[in-house]
Amino acid sequence: MTGTGRIGSALLAAGIALAVGSWCGAARAAGDTVDWKRFNGQTITFLSSNHPWAQAVLKRLDQFTELTGIKLRVDTFQEAQMRDRLMTVLQSRSSDVDLFMSLKSREGLLFANAGWYADLRPLVNDPKLTASSYDLADFSPALLKAEEFKGKLAGIPLNIEGPVLYLRKDIFARCKLAEPTALAQLPDIAAKLKACDPSITPFVSRGAKGALAYTFSNFLHNLGGDYFDAAGKSNLCSAPGKQALQLYADLLKNYGPPGVVNYSFLQIREMYGQGRAAMAFESSNEFGPIMQFPGRTKDSDVTLLPPGPGGVSRPTVIGWGISMSAFSQDQGPTWYFIQWATSPAMQTALALDGIAPPRVSIANSAEYKAWLAAEPVRQEWSKSLDTMARTGTSEVGPPMEQQPEARDILGDELQQMILGQVNADQACAAADKQIDALVVREQHH
Amino acid sequence: MGTMAFGRSGASTAGWTRRRARFAGTAHWLLVPALAFTLALVVFPFGYTFWLSLNDYQFGHSARFNFGENYAALLHDAVFWQGLGTTFFLYFLSLALQLVLGTYVGLLLNRRLYGQTLARTILMSPFMMPSVVIGMMWLVILDPSLGAANYILGLLGLPPSQWLASPGLVVPVIALIDTWQWTPFVALIIVGGLQALPIEPFEAAFIDGATRWQAFRYVTLPMLRPTLLTAAILRSVDLLRFFDIIYITTQGGPGNASTTLNIYAYRRGFEFFDIGYASAIMIALMALVAIVVLALMRLRRSL
Amino acid sequence: MSLGPFTRERSQLGIYVQYAVVCLFILAPILWMVEASFKAPTAVTAYPPHLLFSPTLENYATLFETTPFGQYALNSLIVAGGSTLLGLLLGVPAAFAVSYEAITWPATLTLAARMAPGTLFLLPWYILFTALGLVGSHTVLVITHTVITMPLILWVMLPYFDGLPRDILEAARIDGCSPFHMFWRIAVPLVKPGIVVATILAFVFSWNYFLFALVLSGFDSKTLIVAAFNFVGEGATNWGALMAAAVLIALPPLALSLLVQRWLVSGLTAGAVKG
Predict the structure, then answer these.
(1) Partners of residue C230 in chain A, C-beta under 8 Å
(2) Angle, to 10 degrees, between the axis of helix A5-29 and the axis of helix A61-68?
(3) Which domain covers residue A404, as residue numbers?
């Protein structure tokens, strides 16, 4: 959060803290059926990713311990390291970890098929364990659906995120250009930007092999394409598929920064933040860090990727979820923490820390609206997330269990296109062939 | 096994190493703790990995024995062969640079000069830093748009480079980073070797009128060979398993240009969940390292 | 080996110049890193790079506030120190035996652990140590890190032991010295510089090794290097904190090497090996 909102949000935060405290008190006072001290004195272990959500929640851990008397041991690791450790622990069916953060769009299918998630639904439906004010239905339907596998509730959504377009309205104004309203305009606008100011990179997005599916998918879906056709075959060689590949590769090849094939959120954030790029298509999560760079709050606009032909807009939207290990021996206390951390009051507080809330009600809360009102660009960001929550799809790479490998195949071919080594026909054919082979391999397991 | 000529070749007590040690078996028990420790800790992982490599085993699924199918697939895996090539290219380039520069720096460090302790500590600092930091640091410095490297090139009037983003340059650049990081290590080992050299051959050489370079080439270098080979062996086991810097900077990219075998094994195992196949890659890598190390040791033995 | 009377005056200057150039190449990126640790995070990737700026201590302050730095540092110290010690206890005698008995296969065997990719050990060791109930303890970290340090120490010590004059050892043997006494009373004092080098190298290797601690460390035994990764992440990369952490992480090994170098120097002037 930047500058002016600080005092205001401090007051709001104090207000929220009061609200949370009184919510707990009110819950007890109102004769809520949940006994918060039921698991007093027990210890649970949380394997967390180094995500802003986790950082924000753990700051408020004292409140949880005070409410329930449960001790939380947290191990925080960077995402990839956390996953390494998590998979080692789960593969060994160890009870070392009680709860963990999980990105369902990436590993959900695999973990669910392996039976590694505990089903949270019985816990949610138990009035002795879940407060009536918890309201599971409050969560964005799309996100909740992403947490469900074969009828089981594998986790609770923590946040909502997706790629958004950050643009420098001052540069656009200076170059007398209108902001893009359709996907097809992007190359043209980029060319004009380049002619207007050669020192600024017109467009930057992900080029790193393992990371680009996140941003590419939005291009594919806006052009009306899909990863698989009705028969379950890889569909990148369809007309929209090839178009999407061509558009994405061309934008990065001709108008992207040198060395874009290594770029992921880190370099994109720094590049746009430092004012070196006119347009950046990157995760909504980077909003906070980007706005910390001097000047960006005032000179940036945030929108979704412009719609494709026919006004088609299907933004990519994913969310982290918090899940309980199927091997946990402390389901009760673990559920208490999950409940507390994803309660309406907590998410209101987190929203003020810049964590986009997966709960619909929070987005409409007065405090959050006040924080947004402080800066117009925040409202744009929030509006984008709202639209995403309603109309988005979680399909980052070809939807299958071997999600990372499928993304890698796609990324490999796109990179070759960006480097000018192959054309769209060769790339889509190679990708389709490999993805189809992967599907066959997967069915044998 | 048999007798090996360890130690100084052609130096004073020349004959003893070729005699079967009369005292064979006496100091052997000093080996026992180290060997027992190694076996205890290493046997299970190696066995387990070998067993995994004979299975079709995905994270979260049950194992299905498939004999040598993984290894057969390896032979047809283009990425594996490319990875093999990349591993070797990176290995030879880095090793050559580090041995040459390490010897040079070692010779420098060996002199008694003012500020020697401070200089040594400074020179050792890259080696003291964790790879994650070194990777992140070079990632920024070498960024084509944001980093100081292209800025300096610009100051020198040279065209900017893509550094780590260029499929052709990425391996040499990584070799340079590794050389920056590990040359001090090699230098330290060389210094040790230099300390142990006797003074007489040098005295003789200079009396015979040899120049500094000739003394180095015909006296120092041959006597330094065992030390050089020790340094080579120690660097080889790490270079052939190159992982850290690549993981932090390029993750094996662009494409598979910097995908070494270790990176590939990690990707297939922990990212693509296929531990059976990844284990086969790891076994292949281990075999490779063993062959190289044994070759180097034979070289050392023949001195 | 110093060239003593063969050093000419004017080449001394040349040597110093070379020294300076080498130091500059090595140091330049490190200075960049130290500088970055005093910059505000948004200033690190500013282009053109700023040499002059107003330094801030905020990164170091944040570091101490948000992470239990002291605890992690202590854990790292225990693990690195313990594994170095254990590595010395196991490796130095083994190196002597290999050198003295002129056999290589034990040295190769201990190196076997270093031939395997680190990730190979993760799953089986997790299973093994879970069964032994050791996961999360300092013990398991010390033991597993010794797998790294011991071969290193053994191989670094080999040339030093090889360089010992055989006459002294044979004389001792004839006098009825047991192998252990030969090792402990005669060989070890003569190879002290080697032990110093081996100690520094082993400590640094163990200090910076994160893979085993990633999987086997627990809440109480997490090491500093694992925590260093935490400063890099989506929505959160804090350059300043990362570089500050890097500076702090590098300090103990540097301090150690400064300390033990005095022994190294005194070992050089001893000259006992030359006879």
Answers:
(1) 50, 76-78
(2) 10
(3) 163-316+397-443
